[in-house]
C-alpha cells in the first residue's frame, strides 16, 4: 500500500493568530520504500508524522492510505484504520514495564482480534528482529537497542501498510542506531511497507529511497534515489 499526502496544510492556534506547521506538503511513499524526513527543529517533522498517522486532521489537503482517503472519516473509523494499517515507532520504546518482550507483541496482536495466532505472531515478530532468544525478558532486562527492536517488532506485528518512525535512534549509540536503521529498511522492503523515518542523523540517509527536507513547514529539498 502507498501512503500519499496531497497538498496538506496544518495550522495550530497561536494566541489570536495561527501558526502554520505544514504548508502545502505533498508526499508519495510507495510500498516497500523508506522516505527520510529531515529539517531543523520546529520545521514540522513531527506534525507531518502525526498527520500521516491520522492522529491530527489537517486544515486542508488529503491523506490516502492504500487508496483510501481519510478525509471525512469519523474518529472510530480512523482508529480502526490506524490499528489495522499504521505502525508507529517513537523515540523512546514506550514498552510496558511489567510485560515480557513476547507479551508486548501479543497484546497488540490480540487488539487486532487475531487471538488464535497472537502467540505465533509474537514469536515470529521477535525472531525477525533477532530477539527470539530474549522473548521472555522484560524491558529492564534489555539494552536500549534491544528495547527499540522490540518496539519495531511490535509496530510491525499486525503487518501495517504504513510505518511512521520518529527519531528511533536518539537514545542509542552509533552502532546500535545504524543496526536499527538497517533493520527498518530490511523489514520495509520485505513486507512492502511504506515507511516514513524522521531523523536528525545524516548517516541514516544512505540506504533510503527518498529524502525530503522540511523548512518552515514546506518541503525545501526532495531527493529520490530512483532519479
Ligand atoms: N500542539 C501544538 N500547538 C501549537 N504549536 C505547535 C504544536 N505542536 C507543534 N507546534 C509548532 O509547530 C511547528 C512545527 O512543530 P513540529 O513539532 O512538527 O516540528 P519538528 O520539526 O518535529 O521539531 P523537533 O525537531 O524540534 O521535534 C513549531 O513551530 C512548533 O512550535
From TrEMBL:
It comes from the Bacteria. It holds the Pfam family ABC_tran. It comes from Actinokineospora diospyrosa. The keyword Secreted does not apply. The keyword Glycoprotein does not apply. Residues 3-223 form the ABC transporter domain. InterPro entries: AAA+_ATPase (IPR003593), ABC_transporter-like_ATP-bd (IPR003439), ABC_transporter-like_CS (IPR017871), ABC_transpr_LolD-like (IPR015854), P-loop_NTPase (IPR027417). This is ABC transport system ATP-binding protein. Keywords: ATP-binding, Nucleotide-binding. Gene3D superfamilies: P-loop containing nucleotide triphosphate hydrolases. One of its GO terms (molecular function) is ATP binding.
